[in-house]
Amino acid sequence: MIRINPHYTKLQSSYLFSTIGKKVQDFQSANPDKTIIRLGIGDVTRALSPSVIQAFHKGVEELSQDTTFRGYGPEQGYDFLREAIAKIDYQDKGCQINPDEIFVSDGAKCDTGNFQELFAQDVSIGVPDPVYPVYVDTNVMAGRTGAFMNGRYEGLVYLESTKNNNFVPSPPSAALDLVYLCFPNNPTGAVATREQLTEWVEYARRNRSLILFDAAYVEFITDPAIPRSIFEIPGSKEVAVEFRSFSKTAGFTGTRAAYTVIPKECMAWDDSGKDYSIHSLWNRRQTTKFNGVSYPVQRAAAQVYTPQGQREIQELAAYYLGNAKLIRETMIDLGFPCTGGINSPYIWVETGTNSWEFFDTLLEKTAVVTTPGAGFGTCGEGYIRISAFNHREKVIQALERISQSMQT
Ligand code: MLT
Fold it and tell me: Is 109 in the pocket of ligand 1 (CB under 6 A)?
């Protein structure tokens, strides 16, 4: 008899965005005449930029000739892409990251989800609340938690991110082994200052912890005082791994490309105190379980690092940030306190009411899809998240519908 991994029985019945997808589908079936506007899942709507598409095509063309054809690529990514990432995203910005510390992958979701595999079953884990559900669910699947009780899994330490701390938790007094941080934050849109990140790095150094730093939304940082990378913080290279993605930055949600930076200094220990390089462990994992990202996709991603590619992605980020500004201002005008939407494409809106009910009512009255804050954790109750990823006209239309619904 084939028996299931018992830890899967602890999971909520479906992944947050699948649950929402199903609700939206049911709504559409019941209301076929309504035009739904999606400001729920953070999925980009604008086409890949002209020069990225050109590079993508060229990569495909190369596969059509025996002389330029490529089969399996390096599991860690092609050098042309790793070198471009290291130079433009790190070295030019003062962070000493080398190309061989970069692992190209097909998504930050997969990497943040898979990374826990490297660590012992009984490590203590800190996750933000509200949280990107992948960090939690993958640890549940791995058997690192107890049951789900009152909106939380036993055995995890929840780092509360509320308006009292401007949605940026401080390190706890207890020593945690593994800490997930995400800035600009999904879902709250909050950003962490240099001082706040320094506190976390010092905490990790004191406790020999590891910070898994999810920087998927870095391209939306407009304030030059806000660090773009955990590696801007002195001492971080021994205690942090950083995840980045081309999804939101360059419109690759469907194309799939991301990368993870693991400094060679980063260590984990066995029970006898012997140290192991996390870089080597991840390399071992990836070479076993992953065959790399397709060549044309890596060519398209590398184009992002040319001067023209950089201009194009900045324009893309500015476009979505323009949407974010409209959403934020409208919701504030309607009397809802908001955070995010300035250095982030997400606006975290305090509704003060049950967030699933608010989500349902908004969908029913306006056909606008948002994300209920409670879906991200208990501290998300009383909030909804609105995503700025959509066409400007749709965002304007959604805001008009929301404004009207509030007046009736
Ligand atoms: C979100 O809406 O939170 C993101 O699109 C999820 C993701 O990037 O996987």
Answer: yes
Atom 5 in ligand 1: residue holding the nearest Cα: 42
Over the stretch 186-242, which tens digit does the pLDDT of each residue have?
999 999 999 999 999 999 999 999 999 999 999 999 999 999 999 999 999 999 999
Tell me: the pLDDT tens digits for 32-82? 999 999 999 999 999 999 999 999 999 999 999 999 999 999 999 999 999
In the reported structure, the alpha carbon of residue 216 is separated from the centroid of ligand 1 by a whole-number distance in angstroms of 10
Q: How far apart are CA 386 and CA 41, in angstroms?
A: 9
**From ligand 1's centre to the CA of 42, what distance in Å?**
5
How many CB atoms are closer than 10 A to CB 300? Answer: 30
Largest CA distance in the chain: 67
CA–CA distance, 202 with 199 (Å, rounded to integer): 5
Residue nearest (by alpha carbon) to ligand 1 atom 6: 42
Task: State in Å: Cα 76 to ligand 1 middle.
Answer: 24
CB-ligand 1 contact for 42 (6 Å cutoff):
yes
> Under a CB-based contact definition with an 8 Å cutoff, are residues 359 and 371 in contact?
yes
The domain 53-306 is placed in CATH, from the list 3.40.605.10, 3.40.640.10, 2.160.10.10, 1.10.730.10, at 3.40.640.10
How many Å lie between the centroid of ligand 1 and the Cα of residue 252? 12
Both structure tokens of 379: 């501290």
Residue 221, number of CB atoms within 10 A of its CB = 20
For the chain, the domains span 6-47+308-406, 53-306
Fold that domain 6-47+308-406 belongs to in CATH: Aspartate Aminotransferase, domain 1 (3.90.1150)
